[in-house]
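tl;dr need the bound structure. longer version: we got a ligand (benzoic acid) that a collaborator sent over and nobodys looked at where it sits. i said id run it. heres the input, straight from their email, havent touched it
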Amino acid sequence: MAIRLGDIAPDFSATTTQGPIRFHEWIGDSWCVLFSHPKDFTPVCTTELGETARLKPEFDKRNVKIVGLSVDPADSHSKWAEDIKETQGHALNFPVIADADRKVSDLYGMIHPNANDTLTVRSVFIIDPKKKVRLMLTYPASTGRNFDEILRVIDSLQLTDKHSVATPVNWKQGGDVIIVPSLSDEDAKKKFPGGWKALKPYLRVVPQPK
Ligand code: BEZ
């Protein structure tokens, strides 16, 4: 069955460029970004993996582990890693799953046969420390993803969990946020003693909590 938001991310064991992992155990108490790319030694994927390696300190700051995946074997990933370092200036610093038997790709619905029946599409799953799926994205092979956007969503999800706020359209770090509708005014007063701006009873704006 297709994975949906709020589901527990399916567990699996896999070979990666950093050795074998059991997925849930490997995530531990962290958040996780699991993302697939169509194929090793392809141009867009090369730029994406270099950029993700560059951004690794940003993921670390947010307690997020990153893991890539494609249906290529581990020795191919390792050879390709040399090209990523050479052309993108950043060496791979996170594991990439070697899913040659498509076990994980099938489990996560990363192969869309009407787009391509052998290669994974560009899927992204953000998984929280309770192993719940909190975001799913699917991009076509020809469009590289925006990993700043993935960091932005992680910031938004972590703010929601910690402070009961949601983030409005085009929100960026430091911008005003919105008190979640499920929080009554009475409870909101306790959380936001400085008050809020109510544009409508359901649209209560506050500065971003620290
Ligand atoms: C790429 O990463 O450049 C790519 C991979 C598969 C199809 C098209 C582009």
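gonna send this back to them w/ a short note. The chain has a mean pLDDT of 97.
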